[in-house]
# Entry
Amino acid sequence: MDDEKFMKLAIDKAREGVDEGQTPFGACIVKDGKVVVCVHNVVWATMDITAHAEVHAIRQACGELGTINLEGCEIYATCEPCPMCFSAIHWSRISRIVYGARIADAKEIGFHELEISNQRMKEIGRSSVELVGDVLREEAIELFRYWREKNGSRKY
# Structure
């Protein structure tokens, strides 16, 4: 299944990010079955708290495609996007969000999350984005454990 294939790429990219000292989040943007970009979170590298994997991916995809309208694209995120990332996805007109771990999973491991689900944000904002959750969820949660092993009690 393509969803699992692309999620695996995002998971691999997130693991690469952890190995580079970043947090365990990755995202791939796909259009017409082809990867446009696949990145990991770069918050620590850039000292930019908004450099979440999804926002980083959107920035790069817009540059790669030469447009701010990413309609027809799908984003594969290792974790359910936070409210900031969901908003950026909505504004860029990405058509579909596929995610692995849930916001609650990230909060449970110690990330400073706002517990507002993508489903709830979609309802409140009347967004047309399609949501598909829990794709390779266990593998995505394993990223959190991997990060914890490598980084101890570092706060995020």
About this structure: The CA atoms of residues 79 and 101 lie 4 Å apart. The mean pLDDT is 95.
